[in-house]
Amino acid sequence: MRSRRIPTRGWLLLPSGEEVAADVIVFATGHRILFPFLDTSVRVHDDDGRLRLYRGIVPPGADRLGFVGFRQVFNNIMGVELTAQWLTSHFRATLRTTPGEHEMWADTDARLAWQEQVLPGSGGYDFGPYRIHCADELLRDMGLPSRRAGNVLAEYLLPGGVAHRYAGLTRSRSGS
């Protein structure tokens, strides 16, 4: 194993071994998700590069296509599970309502307009306290009750996360 010297506070050690002074270091991945394998008629992004999917999951007008992992419900595996459950219901046509393509576009456009007001530069992704509303939306679509904590302080400020409230989701959907 190769040992590495850790620089003193205020210095950044580059892979070349060079040390540079740094007051602040910002870690950012930055990404642009592209789909060169999709037909050009399938729109996943708008002209500004924002994610343009109904419910953050399906591109309107693209039958039998959906994406799991873009909708940041809780930014963890529980959110991916909830999204996968919703997508399964969408494909089986068992959601409470299944809007047509025009309604999907209108809803997606309205959501992007709202996001630009409250989350400028979010690119169509959900962040911060708005994430839990995504879970409510998906649950409502599936005909399941919201699984909120009961008061706003507990909802947003208590440690421990919210994943435990979603235990048994698959059983709830199957009626067991």
Quickly describe the structure.
This protein has helices spanning 77-92, 101-118, 131-141, 152-157, 169-174, and strands at residues 11-13, 19-21. The protein has 176 residues and is mostly helical. Strands 1-2 form a two-stranded antiparallel sheet.
What report would you give on this structure?
- The chain is mainly alpha-helical and 176 residues long.
- It contains 5 helices and 2 strands, in the order ββααααα.
- Strands 1-2 form a two-stranded antiparallel ribbon.
- β1 and β2 form a beta hairpin.
- The radius of gyration is 20 Å and the shape is globular.
- The termini are far apart.
Distance between the termini: 53 Å
Query: What radius of gyration results from the CA coordinates?
Result: 20 Å
Question: Strand arrangement, largest sheet?
Answer: 1-2
How many helix segments? 5
Question: What is the structural class?
Answer: mainly alpha
Average predicted confidence as pLDDT:
77
Are there runs of 5+ residues with pLDDT below 50, and where?
Answer: none
Shape: globular
How many β-strands, per DSSP?
Answer: 2
Report the biggest beta sheet as strand number plus sense, adding barrel if it closes. 2 strands, antiparallel
How large a portion of the residues is in β-strands, by DSSP E?
under 5%
* Percent range of helical residues: 25-40%
Give the helices and strands as they follow along the chain: EEHHHHH
